[in-house]
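Case study 2.
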Amino acid sequence: MHIPDTLNWIPAPPAAQCQETPSFLKRAGTDKLREVFLKYASLQRDEEQYMTSEDFVRRFLGLFSEAAFNDDSVRLLAGIADTSKDGLISFSEFQAFEGLLCTPDALYRTAFQLFDRQGNGNVSYADFADVVQKTELHSKIPFSLDGPFIKRYFGDKKQRLINYAEFTQLLHDFHEEHAMEAFRSKDPAGTGFISPLDFQDIIVKVKRHLLTPDVKDNLVAVTEGHKVSFPYFIAFTSLLNNMELIKQVYLQATQGNRSEPVTKDQLLYAAQTMSQITPLEIDILFQLTGTVQQTGWWKRKKRKAATRSRIDYSDLSNIAPEHYTKHITHRLAEIKAVESPADRSAFIQVLESSYRFTLGSFAGAVGATVVYPIDLVKTRMQNQRAGSYIGEVAYRNSWDCFKKVIRHEGALGLYRGLLPQLMGVAPEKAIKLTVNDLVRDKLSDKRGNIPVWSEILAGGCAGASQVVFTNPLEIVKIRLQVAGEIASGNKIRAWSVVRELGLFGLYKGARACLLRDVPFSAIYFPTYAHTKAMMADKNGYNHPLTLLAAGAIAGVPAASLVTPADVIKTRLQVVARSGQTTYTGVWDATKKIMAEEGPRAFWKGTAARVFRSSPQFGVTLVTYELMQRLFYVDFGGTQPRGSESHKPANTLESAGSGTQDHIGGYKAAVPLLAGVESKFGLYLPRFGRGAATATPGATTGS
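Prediction:
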């Protein structure tokens, strides 16, 4: 059982040429792949192990798990990897298909192997007809396999063989021809019109793979009860085919801003260089988005369809089919808490806040640990007072401070006070992130858009809420950090500082803390959200590195602009030594610092503060968002923008995207097979003719 020499169209690229990106994956190692193969191979012949069709499709890929599965469909899918077409899959075939799944055009190559029934690198008329006749679409709306379209590709005698490159065009044209043939069948008199119900019937059956739930539910409403003309029908199907292109036109019109509404004229102007998009398609787009908006789940009463005057990116996402590559996700857990947003109860919302709080705690602890040495240097620089303590200046600059701490206190001295910091920073960052998300959710419109003033308000609320945790941990941390400056044999511990201060003493300087934290968050979170959106790719996806960069960039203006408040807070919370100036409050500290040290004193430690806050929040935010991706829970609310996949799959079996045994290219196996359905409409029956418990002849679809 070997791979025929004629299969030169199956590439086996080396791992170095197959980097792991949202589009294609890195090859798996041979030894690991063989281990996985042997785990599922149930048949031994001539001292070689083989997978059967059921081993590959049902046990390994996890598809067609029902007892009454369709045996023909299972054999067809297994035939994609079974290039020798003997009903068994050898390890060499298993490995070759893994390599194919890593190629950039894996979706088309997978579809090609589905139709290459003889395994000779070509598709004959018999091969094509055999597969098409087994699809659900053909059973509902039969396609003429003896018509002019077929003869143009396979010749009048249907003896011409189609190679891979030609097959890709055939597959592209096939569904458009099928749609036109369906229109003609509904218009036997040749009037050029069909009824709204016939229009719905054709679109649901022929273009099922391009329909989102919102579009499917509004196919009749969008016609407003009028008959559908052939030009309108063609424009509608073309619009569904070109939604990704429409998104690019929108981004061109808004210069990459996904929340800016655009008018029909603006979109037409941006689309004028693209001949694929016609004014009629733009008219339908605005009409369709208006209908979907009017009859959305958040409306209790349906209204007459109305054309929107402006649309934004979220409108396009609601009617655009999900791209199959977005299912190639890497999640450690995936939970669906509610079936739909309408099921969000108060209890579910509390669970959502608890979930965010937990992830925020972990993210905050990670961020604080990474940058704590910089924070210690910043605190000591800010506490250094010129002329108030026998004229002594301990540190010339931040780098000098860093070196002296290492010299006199050792490397662990850089982490003095870390434990109380972690005890406080976990709930502090958690409540800040949770409150910001909560207020943003409440102030966002139905499409998830939020005005800038609301972003600033949400950030300010987050900053205010954190002070209940921030102030106590800051005052304890600061006193521990400056304790190392005093040559004393007594080691100061966090608990002794807490006992000395008491409950009310822990909130000394709270006004200054509010003065710092409220504007910091009001600046930081809106800046982060907009920077993140600017750094997203053309599909709106944010790579972890762009999340880290956005978090770090947003921290620069936020941290630097509130440094004066941070200096005042530090002076109020540190115990003044003999001879040093004391302060009674925010205003008193402001006047005395200005009089004794000048305006430059308010900006002490700015560099250290920026170098601490900027990377800290970058690490915190990237950890927070990646944790939400890895431990995904759908509460029916909003998810972080830039994540991989939020829309429900309308594909093969929208159950998980793989197991731990799906390594290398096989991480994409289930999503790609689903893509063969969702992109090309090649739905195969899941139930019926295969198992003993099946009902003969049943072809119930998925």
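The two ends are 33 Å apart (CA to CA).
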